[in-house]
Specification:
There is one protein chain. The chain is α/β, with parallel strands linked by helices. The protein has a domain of 169 residues: NADP-dependent oxidoreductase domain (TIM Barrel, Alpha-Beta Barrel), CATH 3.20.20.100. Helices cover 38% and strands 14% of the residues. It is built from ten helices and ten strands. Helix 6 links the parallel strand 8 and strand 9. It is globular. This is Aldo/keto reductase. One of its GO terms (molecular function) is oxidoreductase activity. InterPro entries: AKR, AKR_Detox_Biosynth, Aldo/ket_reductase_CS, NAD(P)_OxRdtase_dom_sf, NADP_OxRdtase_dom. One of its GO terms (cellular component) is cytosol.
């Protein structure tokens, strides 16, 4: 039975020409548990040494509902300040636009402040990919576009992306931008399959956006299935994982990567061995029957 094409080791960040790894590492829990700069540096080096060059964070990472806003960025900034050789090895992505307790603000004044604050915390002069974290429905997309364009023109940002935007919100923002969007970051996993049928990935392919999948393991439910659906999906992934001699986690990443949109799963683990393990997804090849088997398990009903 023929196999689907293998995922490439690198992909292009939209039309920017910037190459990124086919797997990203996310740092939403980097600052948890009092992690030291040395410990964080070991994780950054682990990701880079494993070939993961796309590192994704956000200004809200570290916030516990009361304090900690910006802590993940600040910790990464200390790592970068300590070792100047790290920054050229990575494509640095962050996000902004969530402003507790509003919760969202993409007014010109706030975006200007948020971008500058991220640059200060990260201790860098430029962010490779800045993403609007969640859409602010009270700000006109033209105002958002103007603020982002100004940041690009000032050299603060190289490329622009969005996260958790609907297809229509993406189209609206993009229509006002002279600098084209290069990425979108929705939740995608074998347990969150809406994007395969609601147009999100079709739009990404049409516009040349790189889809970055957050929570690619279903928020941990693939490892700890809670429902009959969860168990069915985990079993379908497990069969392929066993056949390839990899973990179900790796199988889940590779299942996403097999899609023609070029989905880049974001590894959320802060454990070095789990970060390295994720790169084995590049070696897994799926047949159409296997791939659709997972999709049918996730849908809970046969395909028409």
């Amino acid at each position: 039975m023929s196999q689907l094409p293998a995922a490439p080791a690198v992909r292009t960040l939209g039309a920017s020409g910037i190459e990124v790894s086919s797997i990203a590492w996310g740092m939403w829990r980097l600052a948890e548990g009092g992690r030291t700069v040395d410990e964080a540096a070991r994780l950054v080096n682990t990701a880079l040494d494993a070939g993961i060059t796309l590192l994704d964070t956000a200004d809200i990472y570290g916030f516990d509902g009361v304090a900690g806003f910006g802590d993940a960025e600040a910790l990464l900034g200390e790592v970068l300040a300590r070792d100047s050789s790290l920054r050229p090895r990575m494509v640095l992505a962050t996000k902004g636009g969530i402003c507790p307790p509003l919760p969202y603000d993409q007014s010109t004044a706030y975006l200007n402040e948020a971008i500058d604050a991220s640059l200060r915390r990260l201790k860098v002069e430029q962010i490779d990919l800045w993403q609007v974290h969640r859409p602010d429905i009270l700000t006109h997309p033209q105002e958002v576009a103007r603020a982002l364009e100004d940041a690009v023109a000032a050299g603060k940002i190289r490329t622009l992306g969005v996260s958790n935007f609907t297809i229509h919100q993406i189209a609206a923002l993009d229509s006002f931008l002279g600098t084209r969007l290069v990425s979108t970051q929705p939740e995608i996993s074998p347990l969150r399959i809406d994007c395969f049928e609601n147009g999100e990935l079709d739009q990404a392919m049409m516009m040349g956006l790189l889809p970055m999948a957050w929570s690619p393991l279903g928020g941990g439910r693939l490892a700890n299935p809670q429902s009959a659906r969860d168990r069915a999906v985990a079993a379908a992934l497990g069969a392929v994982a066993d056949a390839h001699g990899v973990s179900s986690t790796v199988a889940a990443y590779s299942w996403l990567m097999a899609h023609p949109a070029g989905i880049v799963p974001i590894i959320g683990s802060q454990q070095a061995e789990r970060i390295v393990e994720g790169t084995a997804a590049l070696k897994v090849r799926w047949t159409r029957q296997e791939w659709y088997g997972v999709l049918v398990a996730a849908r809970g009903v046969p395909l028409p």
